[in-house]
Specification:
With 166 residues, the protein is of the alpha+beta class. Strands 1-9-10-6-2-3 form a six-stranded antiparallel beta sheet. It has a two-stranded antiparallel sheet with strand order 4-5. Helix 1 packs antiparallel against helix 3. The protein is globular. The relative contact order is 0.21.
Length: 166
């Protein structure tokens, strides 16, 4: 590690696959072979939405931003998608998306890596003067606390919060 860089802090909560203290989500989830159960992904996204706000496909109007990839996308070209956090109505039992913000649905079991940046750029916004970019900060400390309270393992650094399953 280069001097001056801080390592990511891994928040582990044991072997539980429960989403604790969440009456709107299932109390317990049976163990699966997947590194992260569908209910845990849904809990992760609900914590993100409640802490950071809803998203949009347009960064200028989005309260939040996230990037993600799937196992297949890693094999194809190692690319990532980016958008605001999905609307809560875009979260179902087995998948995320397929609505206004994440226009394509992704099964939770397909997700390999989700990154929530500390800040995101709103390039050349109509609200800013011409040619100027603005930035929106995301409160990753609050998000990390919410995920810890819900029993969701994650990595947290000064740059981003992430769930990486590969």
């Amino acid at each position: 590690m280069k001097a001056g860089r801080r390592a990511a802090q891994v928040h582990r909560v044991g072997s539980t696959v429960e989403c604790m203290n969440r009456p709107d989500l299932p109390d317990a989830v049976s163990q699966t072979t997947s590194p992260m159960a569908d209910a845990q992904w849904r809990c992760f996204f609900m914590c993100c939405i409640e802490t950071l706000g809803s998203g949009s496909t347009d960064r200028e109007y989005s309260e939040s931003w996230v990037s993600w990839t799937t196992y297949q996308r890693l094999l194809d070209d190692a690319g990532y998608w980016g958008a605001g956090l999905p609307d809560p109505l875009e979260l179902d039992q087995f998948r995320v998306g397929g609505g206004q913000v994440w226009r394509t649905a992704f099964f939770y079991s397909e997700l390999a890596h989700v990154v929530v940046p500390r800040r995101f750029c709103r390039p050349y916004t109509r609200r800013a003067r011409a040619g100027a970019a603005s930035y929106r900060e995301q409160d990753l400390h609050a998000l990390s606390r919410a995920l810890d309270q819900s029993g969701i393992e994650h990595e947290f650094s000064p740059l981003a919060l992430q769930i990486r399953l590969f």
